[in-house]
């Protein structure tokens, strides 16, 4: 029998599954000038703090995907604002960072200037780790096309790759004015995160679902017209449908046996049931 157990979850972060999915974004399929990118089904926003950072145009041979030269990456072009700073942030899934590659230089792309790189991980605005790298930067084009590997498994002798965050912030210091980030390797974490302006409703009667468990057919009683989404335990959207105020009929008999997440929205509030 198919089983979908529904229960209200009242925390901001909703646990979905117990393993991570490693992925590396090389930006080759992203759009020039875009302030966001999508990898492994997760949307990341590129947030500019000082200077303007976005996806660079297709300049052949100027990036570094970790094994060979490529064409696209995140950078601040020739923006003179200092000290350059940007974040990679998502509001759909939490994540962990393994490593990424960075070209760090003066605005004229001179790699021999001296500078620093501060890497900060945040979760819901709270700093979970921060480290400033001061040495070990590439000073010539060979052998990595001018890019430096930033490895969070050993950053200043510490392992930060297992820390769950929703924002990775990069800040340059010293004489570094240009930053290019490529081959962003990360792990999809076990949680879905709601945006900071969203809340989870736990009021009784806000939504009821029966039978529980079910072999497929569902009756869902909603207090308002809303959009419903069903997610798998690994955070993938499997099904969505409109619901009217009152009792709605749905069927998930096409899904395999398991536990699923049902998410509905009403204004700025969210109801999430398992």
From TrEMBL:
Coiled-coil intervals: none
Keywords recorded for this protein, A-Z: Signal
N-terminal signal peptide: 1-20
InterPro entries: Secre_tail
Domain (Secretion system C-terminal sorting): residue spans on this chain: 209-274
Pfam family, one: Por_Secre_tail
UniProt protein name: Secretion system C-terminal sorting domain-containing protein
Organism encoding this protein: Chryseobacterium lathyri
């Amino acid at each position: 029998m198919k089983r979908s157990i529904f229960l209200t979850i009242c925390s901001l972060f909703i646990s979905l599954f117990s393993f991570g999915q490693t992925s590396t974004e090389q930006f080759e399929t992203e759009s020039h000038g875009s302030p966001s990118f999508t990898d492994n089904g997760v949307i990341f926003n590129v947030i500019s703090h000082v200077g303007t950072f976005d996806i660079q145009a297709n300049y052949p041979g100027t990036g570094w995907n970790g094994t060979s030269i490529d064409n696209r990456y995140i950078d601040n072009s020739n923006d003179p604002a200092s000290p350059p700073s940007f974040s990679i942030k998502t509001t759909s899934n939490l994540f962990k960072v393994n490593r990424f590659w960075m070209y760090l230089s003066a605005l004229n792309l001179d790699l021999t200037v001296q500078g620093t790189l501060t890497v900060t991980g945040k979760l819901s605005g709270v700093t979970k780790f921060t480290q400033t790298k001061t040495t070990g930067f590439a000073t010539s084009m060979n052998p990595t096309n001018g890019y430096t590997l930033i490895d969070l498994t050993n950053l200043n002798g510490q392992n930060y790759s297992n820390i769950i965050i929703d924002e990775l912030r990069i800040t340059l210091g010293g004489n570094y004015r240009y930053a290019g980030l490529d081959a962003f390797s990360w792990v999809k974490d076990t949680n879905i995160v709601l945006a900071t302006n969203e809340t989870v409703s736990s009021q009784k009667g806000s939504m009821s679902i029966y039978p529980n468990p079910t072999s497929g057919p569902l009756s869902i009683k909603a207090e308002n017209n809303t959009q419903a989404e069903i997610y798998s335990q690994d955070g993938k959207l499997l099904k969505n449908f409109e619901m009217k105020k009152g009792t709605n009929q749905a069927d998930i008999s096409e899904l395999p046996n398991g536990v699923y997440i049902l998410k509905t929205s009403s204004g700025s509030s969210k109801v999430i049931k398992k």
